[in-house]
Amino acid sequence: MSDNTPESNQDSGSETKSLSEKYSDVMGKVNETLGNVDWTQMGKYGKAAGIIAVVVIAQIIIKVVIDTINFFPILPGLLELLGVIVVGQWSWQNLRTSENREAVLDKVQNLKKTYLG
What we know:
Oligomer: single chain
Largest sheet: none
Number of domains: 2
Distance between the termini: 75 Å
């Protein structure tokens, strides 16, 4: 007897799907489901629960991406170096003179007034 039955061929085909294909399938189903929801019928607690669920799912996806990046030995070090360079460049451009420092402080104060009242 042969192991190449139509059922085993279908299973092996689904195992060979790439990660991006699986991700796009899942996201397509999520978008379709969220598109069918009548948000006007949801109460404030339902909306809050939905937002919390979306945030949790987003954090799980972000964790998977970061773990994948950490899998490659040289990439985390390069990303840290890039972060140090970006922070250094921003600091040099915005904190070098007293006028620039005052402008940054004013922007922060305006954002604080806008969002916190």
